[in-house]
């Protein structure tokens, strides 16, 4: 038990099928756990990024980039699942004829979207640093033992 409770009578009244109640409960619980995983990955990705700002070796930056890409993929899955959940719930409630219940995009969906955008911007910035593209780190006027630069 993860501490999330969903009213099974509401789901049963919307679908008129009792076996769907357990499927919906498991799906929503999985979605809520995915939110926690995405938040944890964001924290785990944030720490190496701060530490690599002081390290000039490329391996630490590559590890940060891999963590950021993993976080971006998990966040994208969570965002897609949130969108799908809201759209399916909205359609099911409208089709069932419940006039007093409305489902719309709340603050959680927008916060996941903001985190997703920031994560992918971090992936782009880390990719520029690791790949040394866009003119970043192409100075040849100093000796760099890690990248083979000359005087």
From TrEMBL:
<keyword id="KW-0812">Transmembrane</keyword>
<keyword id="KW-0472">Membrane</keyword>
<dbReference type="GO" id="GO:0035838">
    <property type="term" value="C:growing cell tip"/>
</dbReference>
<dbReference type="InterPro" id="IPR051380">
    <property type="entry name" value="pH-response_reg_palI/RIM9"/>
</dbReference>
<dbReference type="GO" id="GO:0032153">
    <property type="term" value="C:cell division site"/>
</dbReference>
<feature type="transmembrane region" description="Helical">
    <location>
        <begin position="109"/>
        <end position="128"/>
    </location>
</feature>
<feature type="transmembrane region" description="Helical">
    <location>
        <begin position="63"/>
        <end position="89"/>
    </location>
</feature>
<feature type="transmembrane region" description="Helical">
    <location>
        <begin position="32"/>
        <end position="56"/>
    </location>
</feature>
<keyword id="KW-1133">Transmembrane helix</keyword>
<dbReference type="InterPro" id="IPR009571">
    <property type="entry name" value="SUR7/Rim9-like_fungi"/>
</dbReference>
<protein>
    <submittedName>
        <fullName>Uncharacterized protein</fullName>
    </submittedName>
</protein>
<dbReference type="GO" id="GO:0005886">
    <property type="term" value="C:plasma membrane"/>
</dbReference>
<dbReference type="Pfam" id="PF06687">
    <property type="entry name" value="SUR7"/>
</dbReference>
